[in-house]
Amino acid sequence: MRYSEMLLPTTREVPSDAEIASHQLMLRAGMIRKLAGGVYSYLPLGYRTIRKIENIIREEMDRAGAQEIFMPAVQPAELWQESGRWDKYGKELLRFRDRHNRDYCFGPTHEEVVTDIVRNEIQTYRQLPKNLYQIQTKFRDEIRPRFGVMRSREFIMKDAYSFDVDEEAAEKSYNVMFEAYERIFRRCGMIFRAVEADTGAIGGSYSHEFLVTADSGEDAMVYCQSCNYAANLEKAEVAAPEENPIPEQDMLPVEEVHTPDVRTIEEVSAFIGVSPTKIVKTLIFNVDGKTVAVLVRGDEDINETKLKNYLGAGSLEMATDDEIMKVTGSPRGFAGPRGIRCSLIADYSIMNMRNFVVGANREDYHVKNCNLGRDVAIPAYADLRTVRKGDRCPRCRGEISFARGIEVGHVFKLGTKYSTAMNASFLDRDGKEKLMIMGCYGIGVSRIAAAAIEQSHDDDGIVWPMSLAPFQVIITAVNMGDGELSKAAENIYNELITEGVEALFDDRDERAGVKFKDADLLGIPLRITVGAKRLAEGNVEVRFRKTGEVRVIPLSEAAGFIRSTVDEETRKIMA
Amino acid sequence: MRYSEMLLPTTREVPSDAEIASHQLMLRAGMIRKLAGGVYSYLPLGYRTIRKIENIIREEMDRAGAQEIFMPAVQPAELWQESGRWDKYGKELLRFRDRHNRDYCFGPTHEEVVTDIVRNEIQTYRQLPKNLYQIQTKFRDEIRPRFGVMRSREFIMKDAYSFDVDEEAAEKSYNVMFEAYERIFRRCGMIFRAVEADTGAIGGSYSHEFLVTADSGEDAMVYCQSCNYAANLEKAEVAAPEENPIPEQDMLPVEEVHTPDVRTIEEVSAFIGVSPTKIVKTLIFNVDGKTVAVLVRGDEDINETKLKNYLGAGSLEMATDDEIMKVTGSPRGFAGPRGIRCSLIADYSIMNMRNFVVGANREDYHVKNCNLGRDVAIPAYADLRTVRKGDRCPRCRGEISFARGIEVGHVFKLGTKYSTAMNASFLDRDGKEKLMIMGCYGIGVSRIAAAAIEQSHDDDGIVWPMSLAPFQVIITAVNMGDGELSKAAENIYNELITEGVEALFDDRDERAGVKFKDADLLGIPLRITVGAKRLAEGNVEVRFRKTGEVRVIPLSEAAGFIRSTVDEETRKIMA
């Protein structure tokens, strides 16, 4: 491609509404343009990278035995009503009516449609397993789209859906996809981790997120230094401590303390003069309409996702003042486990506490020297707080680290959530009707482009890995006015095309400085500089964008050198 | 691909709601499934063909210098208001509001979005020409979608848009696209014609449709046997006849005839006893609020598209009884050109008529022996009727033929319709601001698949051209229970994969008859039959789907034979 002919509008200014590097650089390099909030057009340079990502994904999906299909963007409400998500999905589901006043949505995901196809076409176990995927445009009406194509409303996604006869087969399908995802992100040249994750709105039994490590990432993760445990921060487990009961003789006598208008942990700590680690916090929730008290150490917080999952709850809210009064007999701020009139669970963090402070369930009073067993019976301990520094790995007790990342993929073991709701069944070997076991597997195609840039850029611009670069090499003719020089550049360009190298020829009538700046901004891995001095010696310069290394190469060998460098880089990534 | 693993649900029954062959066969061959009215999912087999079509289009677009971009499906109302189409487009434009209550539509086409991109990024003549294309999902809320993906609401389209500095350059861009389209449809193995067409709702200066000839086609066309003239029936020109004025002495005296309640041409013809070819019909229209009388020979009809284009009219309707009374002084049925109080134009068909009958502009009266010049002055003759059998070619006076076809592509010279409305301007060589000259170019990707089937099928199923076939060869193992036989089939399959041939291996435990029927239905160009008798001789059979020809080939040469046959077929299509 000739730069002079390409729609490739670069800018020097950093766009004021772009907060993170990838958003800024994709705008500055002329890869994308905003059409509306969270809705972007891909210009030629940007779409070249998108197509490369798509091709990597397609190759790996095909290799993993998934079959490509293409489902509509416009989906009828009936299917979503059948799955129960028409009511549950909320405002992110873009709904509309057609000219005949029928309800539809712009598909944010395709569980319903694919399940409908499969239940219609598959009757027996002999037709299973199946894994169907597509690369397709989705819309989620995010309330606050931001960061360019990182969190846009319209986006390109690869989604795959597996259907299996039983749990064992479904697990195999899950693992095959898991491995395909690892290959895909590796081929995209990214540093990533697969972490255990919550199943959220999609539902299902378990799931993993693939996070590309980047400080700007919206997701936090935890991983073990010793074993391969890694999880989304929200999901990461806290290991159950060993129970170490306090001997009776060490229990001090319970003492009620007058604590007028002293309510928060900070206030209690200051007033009584004990560290928050010596206080047990009693949080009262309304869980699906029932009141539940949850105990946690004073310096910790409850992770509501964990609590919700532990209780298998549909809805979870902090209790109202009235509800608190009902179960504690006192206003907010003085709740405690002793004599509370609702069910009780405790986080592991309180398991080995002794002589601690709790609320007295009496206005303006707390209790000192409370002890488990003697004063409070705990029906169940559970992992209900978020992991923090100093915690050990729940698998191997090794040291854990924290990092931030960008979610580029997510695999879910769905189980029978959709096959139950939509009756996707088959006849097994014995002629008995069974529900298919499903999995679903998503990759944010457009987001990979942004994540790759977050992970690999410098002050001058993008630094593409070879596999995602819109062009593999850029030929910079230092002075197009110099006939000999421009002819030499043109020749190299033609040789590269013949060699099958993806080359961009900067044939513009611009100063060399402008061209170098643009080449760096675009992030093309290799740059051939054709300048008068080197040319007189029969040479050109090849510069590596990533390292800044410059090599002088004989003119006649330039195309071959580029070809073999491209091949080598590609091999390195694949290895 | 192994047939046993593929989601490839074929059916024997002809689906009752599918009227035309392509719709029936795409359903029966498991290529598509309906999700909602005019909304289809592509199953793996169908999507393979779609991808082949896309790749052919992409290669030819790139070769023609167009640059691939990707624009959103969701488009903000503001741009459509700017172009004026938000109000004009009607109910085919699917409109909706997002969660913030802003107006959007699901793009049925992308003139507005691409013009917005280009006006923002292009400032000077040095950045032109540009041709931007995309392959993308569109939605048009057709009132009566039908024929499967032939006329669906959601569909895949390639749309390209060219921007040029002047008319000459724009014409060049148009021609480059025209030639690319010819290559595309040729490579798709289709018999087609490029015909002159009306610009319709898209607007602009001129256009061509690419019609694939098929009796089931919704479009009618006319083409010359002698020269290369071809046009959409609606648009096809009637050559202006030579004027051959009637000598005064041959004009008979005008005679008013009492014709009580005799109104239609048939009634007048019967009552007076003259052929309709001796009667001039006077049709009265309301054109943008003005009344216009149009004359045409009694046996002809007015082509309203031609009339509208000739008058440059926005709206055109038959006049009301009141309007007719106002300009003729009589009720409907007795209008004539003599003394009519509105503007008058005449179709060529009356140019050389003599002593004809017309309405008298008086209730229950007609006039005999009316003559042009003496009794009626015609301010303008024009081509206002549709071509019919017996007409000659407007270019060379050669014989013309009629045919039906399916529109698979459409190229438009838009001129400045959108650049004016949206102010897409640039600075020319002299620093003067000028409007860009635009062209737009569409191909119905999903429709090509259907059109190819309409053009090439038989009673047994689809007959794919090699270039669009989802697989190039199918290997039918006659009896998978026979170990030696299934092993031989498996070997050939693996050899074909190694050779890079797209092979489907029918490894199902089905009777040979079922497999043969499915192979014919799917329309795969080549079938290798591995049967016991031939195998004992060291041979297999290769059957050509199109001709039914069967050749016996040594087992060891089968893969090589297929490889070279595929190459040869591909070459033939390209030539």
Fold topology:
The structure is a homodimer of 575-residue chains.
Chain A lengths: L20 H8 L3 E5 L2 E4 L1 H20 L3 E2 L5 E3 H7 L1 H4 L5 E4 L5 E4 L4 H11 L8 E10 L14 E11 L2 H21 L4 E6 L8 E8 L5 E6 L5 E3 L22 E4 L6 H9 L6 E8 L2 E8 L6 H8 L4 E3 L2 H8 L14 E5 L8 E4 L5 E6 L10 E2 L17 E16 L1 H5 L3 E3 L5 E3 L1 E8 H11 L1 E2 L2 E2 L10 E5 L5 H16 L4 E4 L5 H11 L3 E5 L1 H5 L2 E6 L5 E5 L3 H17 L1
User: Strand-residue fraction of chain A?
Assistant: 25-35%
The radius of gyration of chain A is 30 Å
CATH class of the largest domain in chain A: Alpha Beta
Give the end-to-end Cα distance of chain A, rounded to a whole number of Å. Answer: 30 Å
**Segments of chain A where pLDDT lies below 50 for 5+ residues?**
none
The CATH topology of the largest domain in chain A is: BirA Bifunctional Protein, domain 2
- CATH homologous superfamily identity of the largest domain in chain A: Bira Bifunctional Protein, Domain 2
- Structural class by secondary-structure content of chain A: alpha+beta
Oligomer state of the chains in this structure: homodimer
Architecture per CATH nomenclature, i.e. the level-2 architecture of the largest domain in chain A: 2-Layer Sandwich
Mean residue pLDDT of chain A:
95
What's the overall geometry of chain A? globular
Number of strands of chain A: 31
User: Share of helix among residues of chain A?
Assistant: 25-40%
- Chains forming the largest contact: A-B, 61 and 61 residues
With helices defined by DSSP (H or I, 4 residues minimum), what is the helix count of chain A? 15
As for the number of domains of chain A, it is: 3
Most strands sheet of chain A: 9 strands, mixed
